[in-house]
Design brief:
By secondary structure, the chain is mainly beta. It has no helices and seven strands.
């Protein structure tokens, strides 16, 4: 059976928490992962417009496709949006 290969992430953008502004789309796609450098709660608006809350330790990688990280309730810091092109 053939194995799928994850090509990794090739584009990154700093995340600014906001309750209204979405992350940049690159080539028509939202980020496919979120790096969380500082521990805390992340509240993300997912691509399907649902809201999910994650409790993260420092150095967490969330493999999620998201539109934005909400400012309200999010306490995590040093976040980076990662894109797979």
């Amino acid at each position: 059976m053939a194995q799928s290969v994850n090509p990794g992430y090739n584009t990154a953008r700093a995340v600014t928490k906001s309750d209204t502004d979405e992350q940049e789309k690159i080539n028509g796609h939202y980020p496919t992962a979120l790096w969380v450098g500082g521990a805390g709660i992340v509240v993300a608006l997912m691509e399907d417009n649902t809201v999910a809350q994650f409790t993260c330790v420092a150095g967490s990688l969330l493999p999620i496709t998201f539109k934005r990280v909400n400012s309200t309730t999010t306490t995590a810091t040093l976040m980076v949006a990662l894109y797979q092109q």
